[in-house]
Design a protein that fits this description.
The structure is a homodimer. Chain A contains 19 helices and 28 strands. The first copy, chain A, has about 600 residues and is of the alpha+beta class. The radius of gyration of chain A is 30 Å and the shape is globular. The relative contact order of chain A is 0.08.
Chain lengths: ~600, ~600
């Protein structure tokens, strides 16, 4: 089934939804109903009626009945007057008709015809439907209700949006619904709550996550992992301020491009300061703090940088879209001759980091080469030769490592081309997780120079890159990827100790102390609960290992170990288990 | 020599300074010249004359001549008219005279009399002088020149301030100058520059330090040390946002008390957000994210919290006074019955951390118990019984550990009494480095409750505390404390490898790789320089160990080690050195 057919099926199903709604709610006003990724929606103004999940079932039933008798579409061209007459009491459609007519578009109406040859539903539409709806719409389902402003503008009236999906076969629908259910179960906001990893507070503000004890452990492990790995690869890890004078971003040229996603200025004495939306100029100021020699290049300046970018409150999504985030950022200041090798090393690091999480290129993530548009001097710095050269450097890096990649015109940064790391989430949705950028503009703006072998000043280039992206996003991604069952090195609690009854508590405490001494994150569950309940609790919390100790274990000075996946090993020595556990942790398995 | 006499000597020396200046610069206008801690100053308006360091020598010589013939002071009461007539062309003195007269003060003039019985200098003054200046001012010195606004107001004219000091004996002056020289050498701003630990940038903004690679290593080590130690002691280390809605600080009641040291609000949509000046309410929101049981208490929530407080640009001092800083902060939410033990544990932690840096209670730091003022309801929350109880808890904690402490009235926080940790810097200056606070107000404002054994709600108390203070301040303190020669665990470079000539580079590289694998911070100095120059460079950078390898070492597969302090050991095995080094690092010696 190709994408086009699937889209036609879903667009047809949107007509079917509207037909059913109008039969059940004759006073409802239709607005728009397009096919979207994975399904369709239709927005209605239900007036004083309130639609609930139960009504959705009725609408679905009505759709099923209408579909049985749906033969096809009948297309008619109409004048704006005819169209407006049809929608007399519907201001939304009239607004659309006037807009389309004003743009000189041909207006078309589509009648949905039954087998008797009667139109059971008619709507203004540009087309793109199934020819034989009854045959082609093998299965459909309404999925959810949501509020949506007319034309997406919060100054307008809030409408009721009904989401649905449709497929050629029942099997495909079932498969899709299973995937949705799994995605719902894995939703990092849901798991974050269940495992108490992070919270939001209305008093603190929207889009500003607070990491609890457990979530902070995961975050700290990720941060320490990335810092250690980057230092090993020759990065200098620094700390720079999260605010800076507005002049810094004007100097860098970021301000006009980023203004809308920056927060309002903070006045200090007679200066204005900004929450920083990016790290680049901060790192350049460190570079510029003294004269540099070619011997110091490439200088790889890295930081876990707190950044602040405006997101509309409606678009905030747990840790994935927050108003403050921490980017594993770096700027490599290099000679032109070193740039290619540095870009290559960036991809080496990215692929290594991804491999630690079991992520595979091609499967979980892919590369995209984002190019500038030579004709757009507003969006892209004008220097054709520099663009050609930079694009070729990045292209050859990708080609030489035989990486699959697509090229995307007009997706570059204003200062140069970039390689986007496109990450696929559990539900198959692809997003740019982070980038490797080639920058020939900032070195000019900031005079990022160095003294060459002859003692003469030369201009450097900058490679901007992340290794793992924003800590918030990668946490959200990993929560969903592992469905909360983190590998042992990332687990907030690595071992739960389960004494079978009170009399085993002392022995359990002995083991607890040994593990604590070895920096194992262990929880001693000495509550007055049954063993079964303690084990169930540890499993719900997705703790990788449970050590159970009862009479037998105490006598033999041994332990029994249950893994999160259900495997049990009885009567093994604590020392043996510790060696295995520490290896697993240090190897990040 | 008591403080009063010392002050009289210095105040007399200020008259002497002004007398010398007026003889050399008859057009200079005098303003004020008090004794201060460690010396004195006098502010002059030199008109169009510019005073340089060379002029200072001349002024000193003139002072010496005048002092030889200085018999004593002659006190005279005068009317405002008489005084104003004396200072006809000096608007500063006239302003002072009018002010004092307006306040109904008796005006006095002091004549400095020589042995002939003549007045060689006369000034308006309240008194407080040496009776026999020639005898009592055993030694004096002018120290520096600075600009100072008339009456400290930047809207007024900038005057020239001349600083000096005076002592009863030459020996005491010498000792003081040596101390000043040592303090100057140890100044963290100077060492920070020499060792390239941190920089400031005009483009980023005043009071916002950027940590370079090397400074960041020290900071990271300090942070990881404190996080690890706190977690070991049962703290939950969290991450919370650096900004929050202004409503949060209104809810906490901090806003009216902290408003002046908070930065201006950031507008996001229709809400105002603030750079946070403190962490407390952020941690309370985590506590409030779900219902709590008595079994979870005491809950010790800690964070390396980025905080922002306004400092006047004139008061910014390197890392000691910055506009952004990172506090090792914590809030212990406890039952009333647990508060005393928790306060005790805080002091245990503080004393342990201090001991790691070789700091001793009584010598390097001391305790101060800061109490509220029951009569001041504006500054302190009204609840006499709660104050009595809280003050007694803290007092008994200090008494039980037999700690020396002073009590200070009216120095408490608005929500309860506190123990201040008073730290002495190298020059003997004492400051409150951080505090342990007992808070019975926030639990009410935030409803910090828990369910007790009977399932009933009870109100908690909060202990606010730091363990090491602000990372910025502690770094500044340690830089001065160690004069840049950090213990090995904190040293940015722990070992410098010095191959004697090119042919030893490969062997040095072998050793380098081994040390890198063991996470030792090592620098291979394979520049084409002499061994002596490489060693000198490492010593200037205060690197704890230098490994020197030449023919002998290469043949025997051994190394020679020089320590920063100059000790040398030749022909030892690398393995032996590594064991010693790793022990020294892990024991933080």
């Amino acid at each position: 089934m190709n994408e086009e057919n699937l889209k036609n099926i879903r667009h047809s199903a949107a007509h079917l939804l509207a037909a059913a709604v109008l039969e059940l709610y004759p006073n409802a006003k239709r607005t728009i109903g397009p096919a979207i990724e994975n399904g369709f929606y239709y927005d209605f103004d239900f007036g004083s009626d309130t639609i609930t999940e139960e009504d959705i079932v009725k609408i679905e039933e009505k759709m099923g009945k209408l579909l049985k008798d749906w033969k096809g579409f009948n297309r008619r061209e109409v004048t704006a007057e005819e169209a407006k007459e049809f929608y007399t009491d519907n201001p939304y459609k009239i607004e659309l008709i006037e807009q389309f007519a004003g743009e000189g578009q041909t207006l078309t109406m589509y009648d949905s015809m039954n087998y008797k040859g009667e139109a059971f539903y008619t709507d203004l539409c540009r087309g793109g439907h199934s020819e034989f709806p009854k045959k082609e719409i093998g299965a459909f389902k309404l999925l959810s209700l949501a509020g949506a402003y007319w034309r997406g503008d919060e100054k307008n009236k809030m409408l009721t949006r009904i989401y649905g999906t449709a497929f050629p076969t029942k099997e495909e629908l079932e498969q899709h619904l299973e995937m949705l259910e799994e995605a719902r179960k894995r939703d990092h906001r849901r798991i974050g709550k269940e495992l108490d990893l992070f919270v939001f507070s209305d008093s603190v503000g929207k889009g500003l996550p607070l990491y609890t004890h457990k979530g902070s452990i995961i975050r700290r492990e990720l941060e320490q992992f990335i810092i250690k790995e980057e230092i090993k690869r020759g990065y200098q890890h620094v700390y720079t301020p999260d605010i800076a004078s507005i002049e810094l971003y004007k100097k860098s040229g970021h301000y006009p491009y980023y203004k809308d996603s920056m927060y309002s200025p903070i006045q200090i004495d007679d200066e204005q300061f900004m929450l920083r939306p990016m790290t680049c100029p901060h790192h350049f100021e460190i570079y510029l703090s003294r004269p540099r020699s070619y011997k110091e290049l490439p200088m790889r300046i890295a930081e876990l940088a707190h950044l602040y970018r405006y997101e509309k409150s409606g678009e905030l999504t747990g840790l994935i879209r927050a108003r403050a985030f921490t980017l594993a950022d770096a700027h490599i200041i290099a000679r032109v001759s070193q740039a290619k090798d540095e870009a290559k090393r960036c991809l080496d690091l990215i692929e290594y980091v991804a491999s630690v999480f079991g992520l595979k290129q091609g499967e979980n993530y892919s590369y995209r080469l984002s190019l500038g548009d030579r004709t757009d001097d507003k969006k892209y710095f004008k220097d054709d030769k520099a663009w050609e050269n930079a694009e070729e450097v990045l292209r050859s890096v990708l080609k030489e490592r035989k990486a699959q990649f697509v090229e995307a015109e007009g997706e570059a940064a204003f200062y140069g081309p970039k390689i986007d790391i496109q990450m696929k989430n559990f539900a198959g949705k692809e997003d740019t997780a982070f980038t490797v950028q080639y920058d020939f503009v900032m070195p000019k703006r900031f005079s990022l120079n160095y003294l060459n072998e002859e003692g003469k000043e030369e201009e450097a280039v900058v490679v901007h890159r992340s290794s793992i992206g924003a800590i918030e996003r990668v946490m959200a991604f990993l929560i969903e990827h592992y469905a909360g069952a983190f590998p042992t090195w990332l687990s907030p609690v690595q071992v739960t100790l389960v004494p079978i009854s009170d009399k085993h508590n002392d022995y359990a405490k002995e083991i607890f102390d040994k593990l604590i001494d070895l920096d194992v994150r262990v929880y001693l569950d000495d509550r007055a609960e049954t063993m079964q309940s303690k084990i169930r609790n540890a499993q719900l919390q997705k703790v990788p290992y449970m050590i159970v100790v009862g009479d037998k274990e105490m006598e033999a000075k041994q332990i029994s170990v249950r893994s999160r996946s259900g495997e049990s090993r009885n009567g093994i020595s604590l020392e043996e288990f510790i060696i295995e556990l520490k290896t697993e942790i240090s190897e990040k398995k």
